Amino acid sequence: MGKQRKPVPGKDHLHIFGPAVLLVLLGFVLAYQFVQPAPPERIRMATGLPDGAYYLFGQAYRERLLQEGIELEILDSAGSIDNIGRLSRGEVAVALVQGGTSGNTPEEAGLRSLGSLYFEPLWVFHRRTQPVGRLTDLQGLRIAIGAEGSGTRSLALQLLADNGIAPGNSPLLETGGQAAADALLNGELDAAFFVASPLSPVVRRLLEAEQIQLLSFTRAEAYTRSHRFLSSVILPQGVIDLKRNLPQRPTILLAASANLVVRDDLHPALIGLLLQATRTVHGNGGWFEQSGQFPAPEYLVYPLSGEAERFYQYGPPLLQRYLPFWAATLVDRLKVMLLPFLALMLPLFKIMPPIYRWRMRSRIYRWYREVLTIDHLLFQPDADLEQARAALERIEHEVAHIEIPLSYAEELYDLRLHISLIQQKLERQVGEGG
After folding, report:
1. Per the omega criterion (within 30 degrees of 0), is the bond before 247 cis?
2. What's the pTM value of the predicted model, to 2 decimals?
3. Domain with CATH 3.40.190.10 in the chain
4. Alpha helices, DSSP H only, in 261-407?
5. Residue 218 in contact with residue 137, Cβ under 8 Å?
6. Is residue 256 within 8 Å of residue 155, measured between CB atoms?
7. What is the pLDDT of residues 273-301, one digit of tens each?
8. N or C: which end of the chain has fewer CB within 10 A?
9. CATH 3.40.47.10 given to domain 42-316
10. 10 Å Cβ neighbour count for 418?
11. Calpha distance 38→267 (Å, rounded)
């Protein structure tokens, strides 16, 4: 008789639960194919000239994103038109764009706005020696309209054309920023257009210059009716310098809105993070904005991003409110992994206990077939009792070495009791036959 190999409990568990574990792992592997890639740790943003507000705000966004482990590379540019081109070509993922500068070209179809950030006034400065009451008075004067590729140039050309001013009747110089301000202050220009935040160093410098006058748009309502992307805002008297009472009267300005624009393939998790950064930077308002007015899903250059729309409706993503950005994005990406858990693990939790019970009991019940066969054999007149005795001894020996959990000991001892009963019956028949 060969030596009976003892069952190995760990191996038994592997046989029972191994296929289920493999099935679940396969489900996780398949589900992982649908997990979104992690957001990039570095993205590029086009802003504006280094002395402009776009560049300054870009630096503020950069500091906010660095707190969450995302590096925002700030690139200076000629302005909004240049920024749109860089976005369309995929050179940058994010950019600041002035309202009214969209060309609606096929290349721009993949661009989305995350919202408007603040009012961006149009500042038309002229030398006090020039009597300018409205834009028509600029005809024939030397005018800086902004650099090539800037939103300032695009808007200035529109408004000047509305007033009959064109390169044919007035010298329009494509210069802007600090260079235009220097030329205006030095008398090399008569007027200059700027589209910028009041925080812009160039604007503040010109507002405080005694030889420079800021034009008030007394016909602002006419302009806003003709150009829906423009709004009318008031620069209050004395807001620049109360001591010097600058400006000396309330000044009406036209204003576009600065938009944060992204490519539609930007990782969705970064959209919520960018909007939180803009809320931190612009949420308190300014000279022309109320607290909490911006960022806003209005005054848009391009269609609003779906992720941004959800942000305005429900606030920041739930996970980003309570977890660090890296942890929130990890959990959000892996939520699809819950599918195999729900689809496989829960049913397995229900069917595996019965399978385990059946497997344990099968070690015991499988011997009953041989025991019953021997029992039936004892009723036959020509039964080989010695062979039956040997078979019972073998069964008893092997059953004694069965290893099962204590919770199934009752079934094991029932089997051993039944074997003992058959042995007693066999011994009686042997005695009677003797």
Report:
1. yes
2. 0.67
3. 42-316
4. 268-282, 306-314, 318-322, 325-334, 338-340, 346-365, 368-377, 385-399
5. no
6. yes
7. 999 999 999 999 888 999 999 999 998 99
8. C
9. no
10. 15
11. 8
